[in-house]
Amino acid sequence: MKALVVHGAGDLRFDELPAPSPEPGQVLVRNTHGGICGSDLHYYRHGAVGAFTLREPLVLGHEVVGRIENDPSGTLPTGTAVAIHPASPCGQCPECGAGVRNVCRNARYFGSAASCPHTQGGFSEYMTVRQDQIRVLPATLPLSRAVLAEPLAVGLHALSRAGGVAGAKVLVCGSGPIGILAAGAAKAAGAEEVWTTDLLEHPLKIALDVGVDRTVRIGNESLPDQYFDVAIEASGASVAVGPTLAAVRRRGVMVQLGMFAPGPRPAELSALVAKEIDFRGAFRFDTEFDDAIALLAGTDVLDPVITHTFDLTDAVAAMDVAADPGSSGKVVLRLSDR
């Protein structure tokens, strides 16, 4: 089978790999669509994501959907449309025992170099998956939209960490695909107002297309002072922390969703203390993956987030497009022809 494999910084290849066979407790999936994530771009361009450095070839991809090719248990018929939860928590650590499996210290994640051997991803024609990672898709959810389930789940987890947003004024800083999906999810959850920000015009247009109330282009406009009940910082830029805190009301909530680069970073934090703002982190997701599937099955409002679709053989061009937020949103690969 063909697979998209990164061998080092700038070294992306189409390798011919043996088609896998499912072991007990696994199913074989023929992948159809895969979304390109920022981590895929980092592995391709830099050979690392933060502290996770490539030590062996890695099949990229963790935003993957497809159809059942072989379920040895006979539970799922061939051709069943499925999404794949990319995380495998250990089930043994204190975090798993406390029910916060998304921060499991031993978790493995598709398409990740966090451990060695690396956890191979899904930018390939086939992959074997643990049965408990399979989610059967509703008939109302096409695979071409279901590919948004993983990044949407990240946004939904951030909203959950905020304590819910029904009736709230919500600010999302950074209008990349996850930021826009978080904003769209906030609207769906009954937020009174949802604003998004970005340095670029193109992502703000996509945000308006999914129904946010207002956008702010950083450098051209200012945010109102102490206006928002909840802020989701999705850019991962430490310089955005101070202005975001300033825009949050006293005793409001700010969730840090964007991942900071390794090492010390300056940030203006005085408002955190003076206004008693709750500053919370958000990492990946757990059961929100199922919530994301349900939301996508019920509406097409988030479809504008997907701006480009490429065949797997055009993956290098797809990566280059995905790396330009001034002209793209979520870029998707077609992994097989059915």
From TrEMBL:
Domain Alcohol dehydrogenase-like C-terminal intervals:
177-297
Q: Which Pfam families match?
A: ADH_N, ADH_zinc_N
The UniProt record lists the keyword Oxidoreductase: yes
Which Gene3D superfamilies does this one have? Medium-chain alcohol dehydrogenases, catalytic domain, NAD(P)-binding Rossmann-like Domain
Q: Which UniProt keywords apply?
A: Metal-binding, Oxidoreductase, Zinc
- Which SUPFAM superfamilies does the protein's record reference? GroES-like (SSF50129), NAD(P)-binding Rossmann-fold domains (SSF51735)
Q: Does the keyword Lipid biosynthesis apply?
A: no
Quote one Gene Ontology molecular function term: oxidoreductase activity
Residue limits of the Alcohol dehydrogenase-like N-terminal domain?
Answer: 24-137
Q: Which cofactor does it need?
A: Zn(2+)
Which PANTHER family does the record cross-reference, listed alphabetically? Answer: SORBITOL DEHYDROGENASE (PTHR43161:SF9)
Which family, according to the similarity comment? Answer: Belongs to the zinc-containing alcohol dehydrogenase family.
- Under which name does UniProt file this protein? Zinc-binding alcohol dehydrogenase
